[in-house]
Recover the amino acids of this structure.
């Protein structure tokens, strides 16, 4: 996957803990989350399942969207995930990333 700004949503499981992040190197960031290389909320709460992703033309747009989503209520975030991924399957495998 080529470098492109994106906002991603990872979760600990279906309707579990939710983490929203932004990156321009999605493959590397998912590797960091899955191996525990990044300290913080996602690592402590075992958020490794990619349940949502949005691509952007610019990092500015991606960061703006990340800030917007982080301010949403939890139920709004759950609804956003379930609109595109009702079963909360790990989308990273569909994108060709290895576990």
């Amino acid at each position: 996957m080529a470098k492109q700004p994106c906002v991603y949503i990872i979760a600990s499981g279906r309707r579990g803990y939710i983490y929203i992040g932004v990156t321009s190197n999605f493959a590397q960031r998912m590797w960091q989350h899955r191996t525990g290389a990044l300290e913080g909320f996602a690592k402590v709460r075992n958020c490794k399942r990619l349940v949502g992703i949005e691509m952007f033309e610019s990092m500015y747009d991606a960061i703006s969207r990340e800030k917007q989503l982080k301010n949403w209520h939890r139920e709004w975030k759950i609804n956003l995930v379930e609109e595109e991924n009702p079963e909360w399957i790990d989308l990273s495998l569909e994108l060709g990333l290895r576990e």
